[in-house]
Design a protein that fits this description.
124 residues; 73% helix
């Protein structure tokens, strides 16, 4: 599997996961995808943002190098978001489950997308 295939598949898989954020938050037994106590205002906002991001990731997966600025946004926003969540989970014992859910997912997405996009951009 080459870098472009990995990049495309990364965007597709995480795009689908982001679209499925509602069931992931609602059916999460470990507390790795939803913060407590639940706040419907926060949940609706984050669900809307992530579902939209997921759709756009799937669209960009067809030609990720052409959409490089969007992919870099996904990379850097995932690092920032994951870092903030990691800090919050460390200071709040009730949120440690996020280290088994959304925190590593965001860092894995950032590493895979960033590394493979960089490799693809170096070819051009």
């Amino acid at each position: 599997m080459n870098n472009l295939s990995i990049l495309r598949n990364t965007l597709r898989v995480f795009g689908i996961a982001f679209i499925l954020i509602i069931p992931m938050m609602k059916l999460d037994p470990l507390g790795g995808w939803a913060w407590s106590p639940g706040q419907w205002e926060y949940e609706m906002m984050i669900q809307g943002v992530y579902m939209t991001l997921g759709v756009m990731m799937i669209i960009a997966s067809k030609e990720p190098v052409k959409h490089y600025m969007f992919v870099w946004f996904v990379v850097w926003s995932s690092i920032v978001h994951g870092g903030i969540m990691a800090y919050q989970a460390i200071i709040d014992d009730h949120e440690m489950g996020h280290f088994l859910g959304d925190i590593p997912a965001l860092f894995i997405l950032a590493i895979l997308a960033g590394y493979t996009l960089r490799k693809e951009q170096a070819k051009h």
